[in-house]
Amino acid sequence: MRPSDLLLDGLATRFTEGYAAAAPRLKRALSAFRSENISREDELRWIWLPCRTAVDLWDDESWDVLATRHVELARKTGALTVLPLALSMRMSVNTLIGGLTTASTLTKELQAAVDATGSQLPPYSALLLAAWRGREAEASRLIDATIEEAVPRGETLGVAAAHWASAVLYNGLGRYEDALAAAERASEHPEDLPFSSWSLVELIEAAARCGKGDRGTGALARLADMASASGTDWALGIEARSRALLSEGEEADASYREAIERLGQTRVRVELARAHLVYGEWLRRERRRIDAREQLRTAHEMLAAMDIEGFAKRAARELVATGERARKRSVETREDLTAQEGEVARLARDGLSNPEIGARLFISPRTVEYHLHKVFTKLDITARNQLARVLPSEPATVKV
User: Hey, how many other C-beta atoms are within 10 angstroms of the C-beta on 4?
Assistant: First the structure.
């Protein structure tokens, strides 16, 4: 069977027999899309669907690989109508693996592609980015706009995405009652993957923090069934972390450690940082302050470096509660640059030529040269090869 036939067969099984029955077939389909030779035309036509399927299966490796290939294909072939969807998926990947700076950079290219094509693409990637950053005003605007547009059209996926984003936002801000309410609304339609499944994770954490663990029991059962069928370290690590939140004593300790071990094998660094955070919070409540500080310090450093502001502040508050004050991040050199200069500088740092940067950002090579001249002046450097020294790098797994 062709990769597309395998995929359609798996998706049909998903909606007729359920997630567990479909998982083996969908895994074979993803493997085929990654390994078999497919014509460029067929790949452009189909690749968005295996990308989406990889997310549903909690397969971070396939998601990363296929999303990267999607963007590369769209750019190389000049398929402008495909580019918005490809960039949106790539932004989502970058956000979960901790590359929020890269995801933010892609926002400009995405907007330019949307303007050029008139695409009506829902702002799911922007929702993802705003929610994780913990910027309430920005996230709330996107959440409200998404619900306002989705409800009249009967798009439960859009509604689930908005409520899930609310749950992430409020868990990061420590507003657990609000997070619980949002997560319960997001999980009402199990067919709306991935947001309905991701919302189970937020529901469990919020319920545990509200002292209403019983309201997370059903969500944990659903999540465990999904993780068992998926079998990935991402899914099993998230399930272990969620199980730990609803457990006590040695069982909780072992589950937190399992979560950190499994998530440490994945690309989803944001979720690994959260595992360190909730483990540190639990250790502090167990009066194991020294152990708690180690976990919380790791969580804070990771979250702050990734610009996951809400959760980073939560980790900082917990560190203070252990008697240690979180170190403030120094003002980074990149903050002296304008948004356009920062994008140009990062792409030049990553080895792109002026024409390549211009094509990526929809500006002329001469404009790129102008921006680089200003960058060099502001950063007090004289050559492109010095950018790596003065600009922070993205995580090694981040690909644009």
Answer: 18
Q: Is the dihedral of CA 307, 310, 316, 322 positive or negative?
A: negative
Tokens representing residue 216 in the block: 């997370």
Count of all residues that appear for the chain in the document: 400
Report d(CA 338, CA 377) in Å as an integer: 13
Q: What is the pTM of this model?
A: 0.80
pLDDT at 330: 37
Q: What is the mean pLDDT of the chain?
A: 87
* Token pair listed for 322: 């252990």
Torsion of CA 289, 292, 296, 299, to 10 degrees: 170
Which pLDDT band holds residue 331 (cuts at 50, 70, 90)? very low
* Domains of the chain with bracketed CATH: 1-120 (1.25.40.10), 333-390 (1.10.10.10)
pLDDT in tens, 181-193: 999 999 988 777 7
CA distance 32 to 35: 5
The residue whose two tokens read 């969908």 is 26
Closest CA to 71 of 47, 54, 104: 47
